[in-house]
Structures are given as structure tokens and as C-alpha cells.
Write a structure and sequence with these properties.
The complex is a heterodimer of chains A (about 350) and B (about 270).
Chain A lengths: L3 E12 L2 E12 L3 E5 L6 H9 L6 E6 L2 E2 L10 E4 L11 H11 L4 H14 L15 H13 L5 E5 L7 H18 L2 E6 L2 H7 L2 E6 L2 E6 L1 H6 L4 H6 L4 E9 L2 E4 L2 E4 L9 E7 L5 E3 L6 E10 L4 E6 L4 E6 L8 E5 L6 E4 L5
Parallel strand pairs in A: 3-8, 3-9, 6-7, 7-8
Antiparallel strand pairs in A: 1-2, 1-4, 4-5, 9-10, 11-12, 11-14, 12-13, 14-20, 15-19, 16-17, 16-19, 17-18
Chain B lengths: L1 H23 L2 E3 L3 E3 L5 H6 L2 H32 L4 H12 L6 H12 L4 H8 L13 H25 L4 H8 L4 H30 L1 H8 L6 H9 L5 H25 L10
Antiparallel strand pairs in B: 1-2
Classes of the chains: A alpha+beta (about 350), B mainly alpha (about 270).
Bound molecules: adenosine-5'-diphosphate and magnesium ion.
Chain lengths: ~350, ~270
């Protein structure tokens, strides 16, 4: 990841009187796999369509290599899109679909044939040239759509929930393949999904969005381990979220006890929220822990047990490989680095 | 259950057709008379220049009308499909409204507009666009106007129903892949709406071969079409076998056109009426 390729600056978008984007600031780098992650309706597609050139922002700038492009029509941008439901041309066969962009550019027929063949090989559809696209499976159509976009050698590929219509197994495989293709062609992928697991497995950078605003930008590990607010913590994985106060640097208080932590830079006695991931909690003997409670429910989940522990104030969710029978009095322990302190949000 | 239906079809559809076919090989006698002796003279007579010209003229008119209906109806149907739900309803109502009035009466409306002291001439002279009133009625253009007027809704509806079903993301895909607006239209929109356009053409061309009453009313009997010729042979000419032969030829031509259409759209049904 080297140079800045795309910069979104204070981007807003209104549809009628509804504000859909409320000031998006985002830098996207060369060769980056960046994912816009957020619940349905948060403005991911709109952001993507502004980058592609199908929508103009209501205000703000879109820079491409430092040049403002928000008024440039889509066909003049070195950006191609893989659409949500593929949008293959039904009146053209596989090869003609893929060659569509090259034909428009009047590329030599023999060159086109070569490139199409190379693309089909890359997406694993060798020999499919003459097939009718409407008779292909969802996964195959998706591959054609990817080939159709990549054959134009764009600097950026936009993918809007490209795996949304596929069943779980093909989805997993395509996730892996997409990542591989991105590394092979070495261009920027901007990927949209509402599936947090997909975002975490594939991306270099995850951008969590909600309600037309960016909540957090970071690597998958950062996003998972250091959610900046309750929304991110809730959206990414399962969490115990507890209100508390930051006594001072490295010391936090919640549920009536003070705990060591690794966070600093908050004001003294600032109201904050704490995230404890279920897999970071351990069941110990009651006398070894500050937090104690009674096991309410234990469910076997395959690799681990999911155990609900009821304390005086709340129910903690714990994921552990150790069994604890319901009704037992237990303690909850965790390490200082497992305590993630977040700014408190008003709205959620 | 099926038998009555079968009989009905036999009697009321196949019956007259067979009768017409037989009639076309019979010999005419004076005063509406028909003598059942086999002859192909009726068909041979069609090859006379005067009748061939009638066919050519009918074709020319049908072709001109269809072409103009395409150019007017396609954009109409296309843009109609892009309207809001309310806009679509209004456009549809505007399109269907004339059907509530008998088509003959509507054509007489055109006489009022086009005649020498009519509405159009009044507007043109008062705007100073022309010194003396133009001769608009009883001319070839007047017939074409009438044809367009009657046939336009079929084209509009047919294109509209095709454009309605169109996946507009395909246009975005084309634009994304490097097509300007015009290229995107030609490479995606047009092929996608082609079934609608083709059925529109069929729905325009075939009737326009037979809509002789428009030529009679707005053309003032000056331009003879196959339709008027058939009618004349059945009435004043009192030659039913010849009229039948003309009708058979017409029918063969329309059937061929439908076949061609089926081939082009590979067995597709008529858009909007299928
Ligand atoms: N063309 C449009 N006209 C009006 N509202 C729109 C349009 N496109 C999107 N919206 C609205 O903008 C919001 C964000 O939509 P979108 O960007 O598609 O979200 P996402 O892709 O995150 O699900 C939604 O409330 C949606 O209804
Ligand atoms: Mg979306």
C-alpha cells in the first residue's frame, strides 16, 4: 500500500429531503482491499455509485490521483464495477460480455480474443466463451461479471455485495478467490458488504458505516479488537458492552469494581463504555475474580461452549472450551488488554 | 367440453377462410354471380400492372406509416417507462382515451382540423406562416397522418411493455464499461427493447395494409389501396372471386410477415398482446 489513489472529502448526498451521506472522509490507496461495511441502508451503495460516477455528490469532492472527478461521466473513469446482481448482457454470450469494453475501445479482434481467454482462465471458466450467460449458475455469472470488469484493466474495481446472491458454500470459496484475484492483478478493490465476517476475512482496511457516517476505519484486527464505539462493537462480532467511567489512565471502573486496562487519553472520570468479547472472558472459581455470578445457561457450539453468567447487574456472555453446569456460582476473569474502552455514544 | 369449441372454430373461423379460398378459384358471373368452375384467372389478373401498382402503393403507405410510427412511438414508449408511477398512469390514460370514441368519428375530427377552412389552416394563417390556406386534406400526407394517429398507440404500448421489463442496470453496466449515452443506447437499450419494437412494427404494418377507410376518408378516394380494391370488387365491381383472390394474397403476405417476425425473435410472442 503506497500512494493515495482516491480521496473522498466531506462527501454528502441528499435524495429529495433525506440525507443519505453525512460527510464522508476517506482515503483509498493503491493496491488496497478496502471494504465498506454497515447495515442495509447506511449508504454503502450510494458511496460506491458516487465513486463510479453514477451519482453526483450533493457536496464534497472525489479526487482520483489528486484530480477532482465528481462531474466526470462513468465511462471516462479508470474504474469498473461488479454489480450487485451481475447485470450481464443477456443478448450476448460469455465472450462478448467480457469483450464489451474492449470492443467499445476498438481493440484488435485477435487481442480481444487473447485477453478474453486469459480472463476466463483467471476466473476458472476456460472454454466457456460461447455459452449463453442466462444459463450459467449464479457463481459462474459472478465470475463472468468479474472478468468483464477486469479485462479493461481498471485501476479500481468496485464490488457491490457481489456474493450476496450466492449460497453459503460458494460464497466462502468466492471470498477466497476474489482475494486471490485482487493480489494477482494488484489493483484496488472497493468492496461493499453487510456481512462482518466477509469484511474481516478479505480486507486490508474495513470502513464501518452507519446512517450515512463512517464509524471507524481500520484493519480487521483493529476493528475487531479496538472498536471505537458501541455501534462498531455491536456490529462486529458478539460483545458484552458495559457502561462505566475512566478513573484515570489505565484504570477503569464498571459494575462496582475497578479494573486495570491498557487504554489512556480519556478525561478523568469520563463516562465511557467497555467492550468485553465473549471469547476473552474466562470462567474461574468465585474467589479468584472480582465479578461473580451464577451460570444461567450453557450451550454447546461445536468448538466452544456459550455460557450465560448472571451477575447482580447484567448477564455476561462467555465463550470457552470449558464446561460449566447451569446453577453453579462462578467468577469471571479477563486480562487488562481484553478490556476495550470506547467513547460513549448518545444515540444507541 | 372441447367439442363445441372445436365446432365453433370450424364453423366461424376455418369455414369462411376455406370458402374464401374456394371462391378465389371460381369464375365470376355478372350481377354478383359465381360459377363454380375452376380457374386461376383471378390470380393471373392480379399481375396486371394496375393491380400490382395498387399492391405497391399499399406497401409504400404501410412502410411510410410504420417508419414514422417507429420514430414517434419508440421514444414515447421508452420515456413513458421512465416516468413515475403516477406519470405512467396519466400517460396510459391519455393513450387509451381515444379508444373510447369510434375510430371513424375520430377520423372525421381530422377532417375538421385539416380541411381548407379548418383548425390547422386557421392557426397557420393567423400566425402568418402561410398567405393563403394550404390544401392539406385529401392528400397523401393527410392519409399518413391518419394512419399514424390510429396506429401510434399500438407501437407505444408495445415498446413501453418491453422497456418496462428492461433491466436499467444493464445500461449502467455499459456506461461503466466505457459506453457514452448514445453507445449505451445502441448496444444495450435497443437490443433489449427490440422485441417490443418488432411487435410494434408488426402491429402497425399489418393493419396499415388494410386500413383503407383512412385512405378513403382523408385521401378522398384518390389513393386506392388493396383494402379499398377488395371492397370495391365486392360492391360496385361485383366480382367476388377476384376480391377473394386479392384477400388470399393479402393473407399470405401477412402470414409470411408473422413468420419472419417469429424467426427474428426466435419464437417469441407478440409483446404486449401475447
Ligand atoms: N435513487 C435513490 N432515490 C432515493 N433514495 C435513495 C436512492 N438510492 C438510495 N436511496 C436511499 O438512500 C439510503 C442509502 O441507500 P444505499 O446507499 O443503497 O444503502 P446500502 O447500500 O448501504 O444498503 C437508503 O435509505 C435508500 O432508500
Ligand atoms: Mg447496497
Amino acid at each position: 500500500m503506497s500512494n493515495k489513489l482516491i480521496e473522498l472529502k466531506d462527501l454528502t448526498k441528499n435524495f429529495d429531503d433525506q440525507q443519505v451521506l453525512r460527510g464522508i472522509n476517506l482515503d483509498i490507496y493503491e493496491n488496497e482491499f478496502l471494504t465498506l461495511l454497515g447495515p442495509s441502508g447506511c449508504g454503502k451503495t450510494t458511496t460506491l455509485r458516487i465513486i463510479a460516477g453514477f451519482e453526483e455528490p450533493s457536496s464534497g469532492e472525489v479526487l482520483f490521483n489528486g484530480i477532482e472527478i465528481s462531474k466526470l461521466p462513468p465511462y471516462k473513469r479508470e474504474i469498473n464495477t461488479v454489480f450487485q446482481k451481475y447485470a450481464l448482457f443477456p443478448h450476448l454470450n460469455v465472450a462478448d460480455n467480457i469483450a464489451f469494453g474492449l470492443n467499445l475501445k476498438k481493440v484488435d479482434k485477435s487481442v480481444i480474443a487473447q485477453k478474453v481467454e486469459r480472463m476466463l482462465k483467471m476466473v476458472g471458466l476456460e472454454g466457456f466463451e460461447k455459452r449463453d450467460v442466462t444459463l450459467l449458475s449464479g457463481g459462474q455469472q459472478q465470475r463472468v461479471a468479474i472478468a468483464r470488469a477486469l479485462v479493461n484493466e481498471p485501476k479500481v474495481l468496485l464490488l457491490d455485495e457481489p456474493l450476496g446472491a450466492l449460497d453459503a458454500k460458494i460464497r466462502k470459496q468466492m471470498q477466497f478467490e476474489l482475494k486471490k484475484i485482487q493480489q494477482e492483478v494488484g489493483i484496488t478493490f472497493i468492496y461493499v458488504t453487510h456481512d462482518q465476517e466477509e469484511a474481516l476475512t478479505m480486507s486490508d482496511t474495513v470502513v464501518v458505516m452507519n446512517n450515512g457516517e463512517i464509524q471507524q476505519i481500520g484493519s480487521p484486527i483493529d476493528i475487531y479488537n479496538e472498536p471505537e464505539n458501541r455501534f462498531v462493537a455491536n456490529f462486529i462480532g458478539e460483545s458484552n458492552i458495559i457502561e462505566g467511567v475512566m478513573v484515570k489512565d489505565f484504570l477503569v471502573e464498571f459494575d462496582g469494581f475497578r479494573f486495570e486496562c491498557v487504554d489512556k487519553g480519556f478525561e478523568e472520570m469520563e463516562e465511557i463504555e467497555v467492550v468485553l468479547r465473549p471469547e476473552d472472558l474466562d470462567i474461574v472459581a468465585p474467589e479468584d475474580a472480582k465479578l461473580t455470578g451464577v451460570v444461567q445457561n450453557t450451550t454447546f457450539k461445536g468448538v466452544h461452549y456459550e455460557i450465560l453468567v448472571k451477575t447482580d447487574l447484567r448477564i455476561y456472555k462467555v465463550q470457552t472450551t470449558d464446561y460449566a453446569e447451569p446453577g453453579r456460582k462462578v467468577g469471571l476473569s479477563f486480562e487488562p488488554e481484553d478490556v476495550h474502552v470506547m467513547y460513549k455514544m448518545g444515540a444507541y | 367440453m372441447l367439442l363445441p369449441l372445436y365446432l365453433f372454430t370450424l364453423v366461424f373461423v376455418a369455414g369462411p377462410l376455406v370458402y374464401m379460398l374456394l371462391l378465389s378459384f371460381a369464375t365470376a358471373r355478372s350481377g354478383y354471380g359465381v360459377e363454380w368452375t375452376f380457374t386461376i384467372d383471378n390470380y393471373r389478373r392480379i399481375l396486371e400492372p394496375v393491380y400490382l401498382n395498387t399492391f405497391a402503393g399499399s406497401f409504400r403507405l404501410a412502410f411510410t406509416s410504420t417508419l414514422l410510427v417507429c420514430f414517434l412511438g419508440y421514444p414515447f414508449g421508452y420515456f413513458m417507462s421512465k416516468l413515475s408511477r403516477k406519470g405512467k398512469k396519466q400517460a396510459m390514460a391519455a393513450l387509451m382515451l381515444p379508444f373510447w370514441v369510434n375510430s371513424l368519428i375520430r377520423l372525421y375530427g381530422w377532417i375538421i382540423i385539416l380541411q381548407k377552412k379548418g383548425l390547422l389552416n386557421h392557426v397557420l394563417t393567423s400566425l402568418g406562416l402561410t398567405g393563403k390556406p394550404l390544401k392539406l386534406l385529401y392528400s397523401y400526407p393527410a392519409i399518413v397522418v391518419g394512419m399514424i394517429y390510429v396506429l401510434l398507440p399500438f407501437m407505444v404500448l408495445s415498446v413501453y411493455s418491453s422497456a418496462e421489463k428492461m433491466d436499467w442496470r444493464l445500461v449502467e453496466a455499459a456506461r461503466d464499461l466505457g459506453a457514452g449515452r448514445m453507445r449505451a443506447f445502441l448496444t444495450v437499450t435497443l437490443p433489449q427493447t427490440m422485441p417490443g419494437l418488432l411487435s410494434g412494427i408488426i402491429l402497425t404494418f399489418i393493419p396499415s395494409m388494410g386500413l383503407f377507410f383512412i385512405a378513403d376518408i382523408l385521401g378522398g378516394n384518390k389513393i386506392v389501396l388493396v383494402g379499398s380494391l377488395i371492397q370495391e370488387q365486392m360492391t360496385r365491381g361485383s366480382n367476388w372471386p377476384f376480391a377473394a383472390a386479392l384477400a388470399v394474397i393479402m393473407m399470405i403476405m401477412t402470414t409470411l410477415m408473422l413468420k419472419l417476425y417469429r424467426r427474428v425473435t426466435s419464437g417469441g410472442r407478440l409483446e404486449g398482446i401475447g
